[in-house]
Amino acid sequence: MATSAEHVIACTLKPAFGEQQDYFSIFGLVPSCVVDLDDLRVRYRQLQQAVHPDRFAHECDRSQRLAQQQAAQVNAAYNTLKSPLLRAQYLMACAGQERAAERTVQDAGFLMTQIELRERLDEAANDLNTLDQLMADVRQKIAQHQQSFAEAWQKQEWLAAQNAIDKLQFATKLSLEIEDRQEHLLDI
């Protein structure tokens, strides 16, 4: 059993970062629409090694709890920043620009694009080449929407930024559906 002096020494774990730190500063990054994913992955691994709860299994309860909280915070920050959609939503939240729940897209051109892409997905059904082409087109749209968001966010044009997020959300969801179909066809 540890003496009280040993217990005090074991509980000297210093937080790797503060509880209220934003996701970018956890990784030592400046808030931005663009993140170098390779660099982010390296920083994530370093932080996970530093705060992994297994490293503190023999420490006091406080140190174990702190390590668990920090590991969870690092995971949440990483998952948010590696996703263009989640990163954009996070940047908007940080700017105090939360999305209204009942908000709808009022862009007729975008609605037509949605319908066209959905029809192409339905028609592609079991054709891997058609799905590959559709995926290439959707990835191009994702890149365009990311760029539109970045420009609007830089200028603090919040309505335009939110519109770009709505379009990015649709394209991201569609890309996941295409990916599921591709994987299903490859498993057959």
In words, what does this structure look like?
- The chain is mainly α.
- It contains eight helices and no strands.
- Helix 6 packs parallel to helix 8 (158-187).
- The longest helix is centred in the C-terminal third of the chain and has 30 residues, at 158-187.
- Mean pLDDT is 87; it is low at 1-10.
Order of helices and strands: HHHHHHHH
Beta fraction of the residues? under 5%
Distance between the termini: 58 Å
Q: What gross morphology would you assign?
A: globular
Bin the helical content. Answer: over 70%
Q: Main sheet?
A: none
What is the average of the pLDDT values?
Answer: 87
The low-confidence runs, each spanning 5 or more residues with pLDDT under 50, are 1-10
Count of individual beta strands: 0
Radius of gyration: 22 Å
Number of helices: 8
Q: What structural class is derived from the secondary structure elements?
A: mainly alpha
Short structural summary:
The chain has 188 residues and is an all-alpha fold. It has helices at residues 4-10, 23-26, 37-51, 61-82, 84-94, 108-124, 128-154, 158-187.
